Amino acid sequence: MPLTEELQGPLPKTGATQIERRSPAVTPPPAGGNPRKRNYRAWIILAVLAVGVGCYLATHRPADQGAAGRPTGGPVPITPGVVAMKDVPIYLTGIGTVQAFNTVTVHSRVDGQLNKVAVTEGQDVKEGDVLAIIDPAPFQTALDQAKGKQGEDAAQLANAKLDLTRDTDMLAKKVISSQQYDTQKALVDQLEATVVADVGAVASAQVQLDYSTMRSPLSGRVGIRQIDQGNIIHAADTNGLVVITQLQPISVLFTLPEQNLRLIHQQSLDGAGMQVLAVDRDDNSVLDVGTVGVVNNQIDPTTGTIQIKANFPNAKYQLWPGQFVNARLLLTTRKNGVTVPAQVVQNGPDGAFAYVIEADNTVQVRPVKVAQVDNNVALIDSGLKPGEKVVVDGQYKLQPGSKVVVPAASPGAGGDGSGGHHHHAGAAGSPSS
Fold it and tell me: Whole-model pTM above 0.70?
């Protein structure tokens, strides 16, 4: 009904003295309510929840935790150490490859049937030892023929010399002409040349016979055999009989950055004689100790490195051709160097640092400069003084000013460190505790 008609129509009869009017017809809001009101309610709910969570965390935070989440309620148990002084060797380290001192592929120098292989694979041989024998019969026959020819020509030469002696007397007596004498003398000269050639042929046949016995050209170890007994072997074969490598001594070829060349020259003009350690790839154990043989005469322009060859006695055969090792060149020894266990040095955003224990058993952060870390000992250039106490283990619980305590069952650690890990020249950090 229209609103005007509703107002103009007769009022309903009622016993009440107050007249009630109907409200105008209003279009109901869409299902779900007003979106703005709904978002407003959601924000109110989230705010209430946030306040509640904050109050809960504030009332339930452990009493022994500081604002940084580190323990501040009592002393922190740590393992202490003492800054020490000792002589420290300074090393330059590079990755090297072990090479045989000499390597020879043994080829046959004559053709023939391989009658016998006189060595076994992996056998150590000396220079001149028999390796194999090729059928010598053809070469012995050729030698006998050459000797026979030499004997025949030698006999003819002897007879021609006798005739020349007679002709000389007869020429003096003018019994024969000079032409006849000259002819005889030429014959003697010809036969002498023939005999000389025969001597060469005999020597050549003897060499071929000697070549039928294959001998080791050096002392070393025999590799895997490439040709089996009974096969026909040729001097032109691509594969040899065996490969012999000299393992004692042995060499390691390694590289260092070119900027290290000046340091090497400060110790030795040509680098020869400087001590080198061959260390396994795990950097745990020294395989052998040798000396620099040669520093290459040029720097590789593509890599900016210098090649160095060191020689090792390899008495225990711990170095093997093709093996990768860490070569550590002893540059010098720093006398009375300041040292701490490698675990003392920590790495932070501003560089290396250490926790120093003060007299009141609190710790302070001290920036340090590390020269090298080797054999679990850090050589300190600056930042620490001999005799100072430092934290070796337990740093992750500490912050500047923290109180520390040494557990009764935990002995102090000295500056020598322990363990066998090697970190080399230029390392500025160590594993975190």
Answer: no
